[in-house]
Specification:
globular, five-stranded parallel β-sheet, alpha/beta, 5 helices, about 160 residues
Length: about 160
């Protein structure tokens, strides 16, 4: 199994890249992971609602194009309106995909969220929180949670769960 992160945006702040890289290195022995950075659209200073939808649609097309190149990849969209999962639930979803021989593609939208077309293609919509989170921060949180889920699957002591 392989996990791909399809994320809108490039050239992340140093603190984001440092946090992401730390968990990215840790997870590699357990789960082959890669990031595919989707270029964000250039935005006007005060975009209209129609322009915001156009940005999301354009970025969504690039996301779907990147996903189309992957065979047997479950598309998991990170969306505030998605379903909340515990870390244990995430570990179970990953374990199920591993047993089915499926890859997983985790989608992080840009500043304007995900297009309707991307959300319609999703096999699952996952909400990290009911809070609106900045998309660069989501990269770090997602990598940490993937790492934590893999430590549960591999019986590593990183996740302490219900021990206390």
């Amino acid at each position: 199994m392989k996990a791909r992160i399809l994320a809108v945006g490039q050239k992340m702040p140093t603190w984001v890249q440092t946090g992401f890289d730390d968990y990215f290195k840790r997870i590699q022995p357990m789960l082959s992971t890669e990031i595919v950075e989707i270029p964000a659209c250039k935005r006007s200073k005060n975009p209209s609602v129609a322009e915001l939808e156009k940005y999301a649609t354009t970025e969504g097309g690039l996301i779907l194009q990147a996903h189309a190149n992957a065979k047997r990849e479950r598309l998991i969209c990170l969306d505030v309106r998605g379903k909340n999962l515990s870390t244990e639930d995430l570990a179970e979803k990953i374990s199920d995909a591993m047993q089915m021989g499926e890859d997983m593609g985790f989608v992080i939208g840009g500043a304007d969220g995900l297009s309707k077309a991307v959300l319609a293609q999703a096999d699952f919509k996952w909400s990290l929180s009911s809070l609106t989170l900045p998309h660069p921060l989501v990269r770090v949180i997602l990598m940490e949670q993937l790492y934590r889920a893999m430590t549960i699957i591999n019986h590593h002591p990183y996740h302490r769960g219900d021990y206390f």
